C-alpha cells in the first residue's frame, strides 16, 4: 500500500499552554456596612498578609501588584506571576478578617490577558 | 500499586556550643523543624509536611538526625531545614544549624550512606588525632565523642564480626526482629526507634570500625 505524502504545510501552528508570564485577577472585597474601607496600600498589605498566613515567607515574597483599585466599589485588579496564581487565589479565599471584622474576597474575573478583564458578560445589562 | 512513598532526609546538627548536644532530642528537633516549616511555608506547608513527619532516628553523640516526610513535600521540608537556627530543650536555647547529608527513599539507603559517611569521618578524625592519649580523651566536639563511642563499642565486636553489614554472632542468625542487647541502651537512641531499626544501627557500628 502506497502512502501518499502529505503536502508541505503552508503555515505553522504553535500551541502554548500556560505560557503567559502574569495572571490578572479582578477581585472585590466585601465588608460589612460601617467598616473602614481600605486604601490601595492597605489592600496590598491585606493581600500580602493573607499570603504570609497561608503560604509563609515564601508566599509573602510572591510578586503581587495592585494595578487598579476603586475605593468606592472596593474592586481591584491584581497581577501575579503565573506560577503563583493558585497560592494567591487560595490565600484570598481563606482571608476572613480585616481589622478584626469579617470580610470576603470575591474573585470576579481572571485571565492571562489584561484586556480580557475589560469585557465581562456577567455584568452585561440586557435591556 | 498504590502506597505512600516517603522520603528520608539525613541531617547533621552543627553547633559551636558543646552543651547543645544535651538538648538534641527527637521532640526538640521535631518542634524546631516544624516551626521552621511554619515560618517558611505557612499553614499550607505545615499541613503538607506534618502529615507523615517524624524524627526516625537521632544520635546525640554525632548529631545525626533522620527525618521522614511524604515524597511530594520533600522539597518543602528541605527548603525549610536551613532556616532552623535554634534548638530548645529544658528551658535552654542553643544556636545550631542543620546540614543535609543525604535524601533517600528508604531507611536502608540512608543507613548505607551513613555507614560510608561515618567511615570517612572516622578516617579524618584519626588523621587529626596526634597521639593515643588525645584519641581516648573525651573531646569537646561531637565528632571526638563519636570516635570514642565507636571505639569503645567496637572493640568487642571487632573480634567477632567479619566486616560489612553482618549480623552479630551472638544473636540468632536469620532473625531480624527482637530488641538489641542491653549495652545499646546507653546510646541515646530515639524512643521512636523500632526494634528493626535498632538492629540496623547495631549492624552499622562494627562495619564502620572494620574499615
TrEMBL record, chain A:
Name one cellular component (GO) term. nucleolus
InterPro entries recorded: Pop5/Rpp14/Rnp2-like, Rnp2-like_sf
| Keyword Magnesium part of the UniProt annotation | no
Q: Which domain of life is it from?
A: Eukaryota
Tell me where the signal peptide lies. Answer: none
Write the record's keywords in alphabetical order, separated by commas.
Answer: tRNA processing
Query: Has UniProt tagged this entry with the keyword tRNA processing?
Result: yes
Against Pfam families, the record matches this protein to: RNase_P_Rpp14
Q: Tell me the Gene Ontology biological-process terms attached to this UniProt entry.
A: tRNA 5'-leader removal
Q: Name one GO molecular function term.
A: ribonuclease P RNA binding
PANTHER family from the entry? RIBONUCLEASE P PROTEIN SUBUNIT P14 (PTHR15441)
What family is this? Answer: Belongs to the eukaryotic/archaeal RNase P protein component 2 family.
Per its record, how is this protein called by name? Ribonuclease P/MRP subunit p14
Where does this protein come from, organism-wise? Answer: Pavo cristatus
Lineage of producing organism = Eukaryota, Metazoa, Chordata, Craniata, Vertebrata
Automatic annotation (TrEMBL), chain B:
User: Where does the signal sequence lie?
Assistant: none
Q: Which GO terms describe its cellular component?
A: multimeric ribonuclease P complex; nucleolus
Its chief place of residence is nucleus
Say yes or no: keyword Iron-sulfur present: no
InterPro entries according to UniProt: Pop5/Rpp14/Rnp2-like, Rnp2-like_sf
Q: Which GO terms describe its biological process?
A: rRNA processing; tRNA 5'-leader removal
Keyword vocabulary terms for this entry: Nucleus, rRNA processing, tRNA processing
Q: Which SUPFAM superfamilies match?
A: Rnp2-like
* Pfam families, sorted: RNase_P_Rpp14 (PF01900)
Location(s) in or outside the cell? Nucleus, Nucleolus
User: What does the similarity note say?
Assistant: Belongs to the eukaryotic/archaeal RNase P protein component 2 family.
Q: What functional role does this protein have?
A: Component of ribonuclease P, a protein complex that generates mature tRNA molecules by cleaving their 5'-ends. Also a component of the MRP ribonuclease complex, which cleaves pre-rRNA sequences.
Q: How does it assemble?
A: Component of nuclear RNase P and RNase MRP ribonucleoproteins. RNase P consists of a catalytic RNA moiety and 10 different protein chains; POP1, POP4, POP5, POP7, RPP14, RPP21, RPP25, RPP30, RPP38 and RPP40. Within the RNase P complex, POP1, POP7 and RPP25 form the 'finger' subcomplex, POP5, RPP14, RPP40 and homodimeric RPP30 form the 'palm' subcomplex, and RPP21, POP4 and RPP38 form the 'wrist' subcomplex. All subunits of the RNase P complex interact with the catalytic RNA. Several subunits of RNase P are also part of the RNase MRP complex.
**What protein does this entry describe?**
Ribonuclease P/MRP protein subunit POP5
